[in-house]
From TrEMBL:
Pfam families: HTH_3. Residues 7-60 form the HTH cro/C1-type domain. This is HTH cro/C1-type domain-containing protein. It comes from the Bacteria.
Length: 115
């Protein structure tokens, strides 16, 4: 199984599509599809995808058959079943989108800073 196939299979088992995985990993929405066209993912990209999918990078690279799921699974803010609140009041969809926008901005800043 290729890295692309492992990412796709794992994403499906997590209820995500590849676009969602890419965006949650701080990548462009079509970045993962390039891995199916012979482009090898960088180390930071594999780490980000593994963190998003809650598996080890070695599993995605085919170096391990065990996904080694981490205990501290990240929260997916796109999950419609997730209830967010601040200051005792529910966060509405507009505010949720603003939070997601801010987090994407911060990820881009960190990538540019080399973190």
């Amino acid at each position: 199984m290729t890295t692309f196939e492992r990412i796709k299979s794992t994403a499906k088992s997590r209820g995500m599509n590849l676009k969602q995985v890419a965006l949650a990993s701080g990548m462009s929405e079509n970045a993962i599809y390039r891995y199916n066209q012979g482009v090898d993912p960088s180390g930071p990209a594999i780490k980000a995808i593994a963190d998003t999918l809650n598996v080890s990078p070695n599993y995605l690279l085919g170096q391990s058959e065990e996904p080694h799921v981490y205990e501290n699974k990240p929260i997916n803010l796109d999950d419609s079943d997730l209830l967010l609140a601040f200051d005792g009041k529910e966060i509405d969809e507009e505010d949720k989108q603003a939070i997601i926008g801010f987090l994407k901005f911060r990820r881009a800043q960190k990538r540019n800073e080399g973190k």
